[in-house]
């Protein structure tokens, strides 16, 4: 449960109820600053690392091996990260992972600057980076509601996501400039500094109670704890339905926008404007965060899930009328819409999942999302070759619309409300219901779900 200002060192004198009110709480400010720096470093790292690999071997295949090694390690250890974050104090998880990531990035930077880097070495260090990211992601997401009072959870998530988006924009933008002017080795050194700064910020995150910490003397049972997390994940139909929806949406968007989009841009309006189009989506996300912070919509998850259909619009434009201005407007709208979903999703999880199991549910959520991305990326090209690029994009848009409509048909998604007190640690899950007082849907109750 979120603590009071007297308990956790929050600056209660400046607390308010506006969209920026969470920033009056010192633990939240420190957590937000740390996550901004982490996302800044994580956005900068792939660009700097790509140039480092290309400078070392000049091989796109080698680059794929290095980047793929990080992704595989990240996916493989996400569930472990969820268990650790629900068992060990989450602030310690964040501090340790940030310091270790700083050390790994420094090692990569030194090897590049001294021209001793090799593909096996970069793969090994990338695996370590992916593992550390898997450790920190569930902990950081689950810690947010502990840093503010319960009535500020919605604006806190909105402000947090705005900071993350700012960090990602700045990191991606700066990486290319640093790599071009100073070299990729110095870009990687900047990553090490950013991770170190994040660790310092996380030192200032103090929250009351023992959330995310095992009882004294309790034996670690990772498999049992994973099963507990799976039960929490599957016990509420709205949770796994939304994850299934986004498993499809993420695969389609990764293939349509990230794989087919650059080729279409090359053939039409050019690479420079393609970068502006992608930046428009991030700008939309920033504006969307402001709207989400001010929103008082009770059925926020229903609105967010429905707005996901906007993701189909850029695919249709890429297929039928690939003009930079039109596409930029669509991507801006996409970013704005997805931010409404993102905030609603975080708030819904934080208010309904017992917080001593929240990190494990976040881990299953992230696993579902990350697993889908390579599938979309690997199948988009072959499908476009066989069916045609336009047909593939239009089919993807139809698929996004279809899975969104299916999700909206769920009674639990339509009736779930936000603005409740977050679930306490150890609260038993309600089989198939988002709220204890709601009537469960008959099919697919907890007893019928897989463990």
What is the residue-mean pLDDT, rounded to a whole number? 78
N to C succession of SSEs:
HHHHHHHHHHHHHHHH
The fold-level CATH name of the largest domain is Growth Hormone, Chain: A
Helix tally equals: 16
Helix content: over 70%
CATH secondary-structure class of the largest domain: Mainly Alpha
Shape descriptor reads: globular
Question: Could you explain how this protein is built, in words?
Answer:
α2 packs antiparallel against α7. Helix content is 73%, strand content 0%. The two termini are 27 Å apart. By secondary structure, the chain is mostly helical.
Gist of the model:
The protein has helices at residues 5-8, 26-56, 60-87, 90-113, 119-143, 153-181, 184-203, 222-235, 237-267, 271-294, 300-307, 312-320, 324-352, 358-387, 389-408, 411-415. The protein is an all-alpha fold and 451 residues long.
Task: Describe how the helices and strands are arranged.
Layout: H1 5-8, H2 26-56, H3 60-87, H4 90-113, H5 119-143, H6 153-181, H7 184-203, H8 222-235, H9 237-267, H10 271-294, H11 300-307, H12 312-320, H13 324-352, H14 358-387, H15 389-408, H16 411-415
Helix pairs in contact: 2-3, 2-5, 2-6, 2-7, 3-5, 3-8, 3-14, 4-5, 4-7, 5-14, 6-7, 6-10, 6-13, 8-14, 9-12, 9-14, 9-15, 10-13, 11-13, 12-13, 12-15, 14-15
């Amino acid at each position: 449960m979120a603590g009071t200002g007297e308990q956790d060192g929050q600056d209660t004198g400046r607390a308010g109820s506006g969209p920026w009110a969470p920033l009056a709480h010192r633990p939240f400010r420190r957590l937000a600053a740390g996550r901004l720096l982490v996302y800044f470093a994580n956005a900068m790292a792939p660009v700097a690392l790509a140039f480092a690999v290309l400078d070392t071997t000049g091989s796109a295949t080698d680059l794929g091996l290095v980047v793929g090694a990080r992704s595989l390690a990240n996916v493989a250890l996400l569930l472990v990260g969820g268990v650790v974050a629900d068992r060990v104090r989450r602030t310690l998880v964040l501090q340790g992972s940030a310091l270790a990531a700083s050390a790994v990035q420094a090692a990569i930077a030194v090897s590049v600057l001294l021209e001793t880097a090799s593909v096996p070495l970069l793969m090994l260090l990338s695996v370590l980076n992916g593992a550390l990211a898997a450790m920190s992601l569930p902990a950081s997401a689950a810690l947010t509601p502990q840093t503010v009072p319960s009535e500020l959870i919605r604006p806190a998530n909105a402000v947090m996501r705005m900071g993350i988006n700012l960090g990602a924009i700045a990191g991606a933008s700066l990486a290319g400039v640093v790599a071009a002017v100073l070299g990729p080795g110095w870009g990687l050194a900047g990553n090490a500094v950013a991770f170190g700064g994040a660790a310092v910020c996380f030192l200032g995150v103090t929250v009351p109670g023992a959330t995310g910490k095992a009882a004294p003397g309790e034996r670690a049972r990772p498999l049992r704890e994973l099963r507990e997390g799976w039960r929490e994940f599957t016990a509420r139909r709205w949770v796994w339905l939304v994850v299934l929806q986004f498993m499809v949406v993420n695969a389609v968007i990764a293939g349509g926008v990230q794989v087919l989009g650059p080729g279409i841009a090359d053939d039409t309006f050019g690479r420079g404007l393609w970068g502006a189009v992608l930046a428009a989506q991030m700008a939309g996300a920033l504006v969307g965060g402001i709207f989400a912070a001010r929103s008082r919509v009770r059925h926020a998850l229903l609105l967010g899930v429905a707005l996901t259909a906007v993701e189909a619009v850029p695919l249709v434009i890429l297929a039928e009328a690939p003009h930079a201005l039109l596409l930029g407007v669509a991507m801006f709208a996409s970013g704005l819409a997805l931010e409404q979903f993102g905030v609603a999703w975080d708030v819904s999880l934080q208010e309904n999942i017992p917080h001593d199991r929240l990190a494990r549910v976040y881990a299953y959520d992230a696993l579902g999302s990350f697993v889908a991305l390579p599938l979309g990326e690997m199948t988009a090209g072959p499908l476009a070759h066989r069916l045609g690029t336009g047909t593939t994009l239009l089919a993807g848009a139809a698929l996004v619309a279809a899975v969104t409509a299916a999700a909206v048909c769920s009674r639990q998604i339509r009736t779930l409300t936000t603005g409740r007190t977050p679930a306490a640690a150890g609260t038993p899950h309600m089989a198939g219901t988002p709220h204890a007082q709601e009537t469960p849907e008959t099919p697919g109750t907890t007893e019928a779900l897989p463990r």
